[in-house]
């Protein structure tokens, strides 16, 4: 009987601890943001439904365009373009920051904030103020 009371008290204490602690990151994911993310799909929301297509900016026969977010809050955007040479890579450097579920990038002095719609170990989905959606997959 004493063991049952102790077990009940322990379970009750654990229950209070788990419900009394507030989560300051409510609504945020714990998946890491840093990493190389390849552009996979683009789209928008039409009549309340997401419409996504394979990213047309990815050059056929080339690696996919990417966003490389480093742990020191620097970034590199990579764009493959075959206009001048087959699969030539053009990169731009910048910085980024995350505030809750927003990702702000600054490249060439231009600051852009996008909502983080989804962040898992393998997918990063961003949406801008105009409803444009970009889906990245981790390299």
Could you describe the 3D structure shown?
This protein is mostly beta strands and 139 residues long. The protein has a single domain, classed as Lipocalin. 14% of the residues lie in helices and 50% in strands. The protein has 1 helix and 9 strands, in the order αβββββββββ. The chain has one helix spanning 2-20, and strands spanning 35-46, 49-54, 66-69, 74-81, 88-99, 102-107, 110-119, 123-127, 133-138. It has an 8-stranded antiparallel β-barrel. The longest helix is centred in the first third of the chain and has 19 residues, at 2-20. It is globular, with a radius of gyration of 21 Å. The termini are far apart. Residues 1-27 have low confidence and may be disordered. Residues 1-22 form the signal peptide.
- Counted by DSSP, the helix tally is 1
- Can you give the mean pLDDT? 84
**What is the domain total for the residues?**
1
Which class do the helix and strand fractions yield? mainly beta
Are there runs of 5+ residues with pLDDT below 50, and where? 1-27
Strand tally: 9
* SSE ordering: HEEEEEEEEE
What name does CATH use for the topology? Lipocalin
- In the sheet with the most strands, the strands line up as 1-3-4-5-6-7-8-9
CATH C-level:
Mainly Beta
The best one-word shape is globular
Distance between the termini: 56 Å
Strand content: over 45%
Radius of gyration: 21 Å
Main beta-sheet strand count, sense and barrel state = 8 strands, antiparallel, barrel
CATH architecture: Beta Barrel
**Which percent range fits the helix content?**
10-25%
